[in-house]
Design a protein that fits this description.
The protein has 135 residues and is an alpha+beta fold. 25% of the residues lie in helices and 14% in strands. The chain contains four helices and five strands, in the order βαββαβααβ. The protein has a three-stranded mixed β-sheet, covered by helices on one side. A two-stranded antiparallel ribbon has the order 1-3. The termini are far apart.
């Protein structure tokens, strides 16, 4: 990711929490597809915007901070995510995962999946779990 010019978001703001869900089994694939990748990398501008958003959040609500679940994603992982939903026809799969033929803005380091967490690391309830695939 660094070789592609992406920035580790924690280098801009170490208080941003990062728990890449695709480095865990708590995702719709139910397996770790990222392996040793545990840092969130983004293009410089989105990374700066994320750090700014976290600063605004902390100023307004000192006991909260951003928790990043996903960011820049290797293209090979995009294919794994796409293929894991083979039970759906392509037009329905695109509701949940970008087609590898179109690529995802995650593949360019321009998208981030996140939530808000307390200063103790407890994510706020957003109404659904991560990767909630509603039918």
């Amino acid at each position: 990711m660094k070789q592609q010019g992406l920035v580790n978001v924690k280098s801009l703001d170490p208080s941003i929490a990062v728990l890449l869900k695709y480095s865990t089994t708590d995702n719709f694939v139910k397996k770790d597809v990222y392996g040793c990748m545990t840092a969130c990398y983004l293009q410089k501008k989105p990374a700066q915007m994320l750090a700014k958003a976290n600063a605004i959040l902390k100023k307004r609500h000192p006991h909260y901070r951003l928790l990043v679940y996903d960011g820049g994603r290797p293209f090979a992982i995009q294919k794994i995510l796409w293929n894991s939903l083979s039970q759906y026809p392509p037009h329905q799969r695109e509701t949940y995962v970008a087609s590898p033929s179109q690529k995802s803005i995650h593949n360019y380091g321009c998208a981030v999946d996140l939530t808000i967490t307390t200063s103790k690391g407890v994510p706020l309830d957003m109404g659904t779990p991560f990767d909630f695939l509603a039918n």
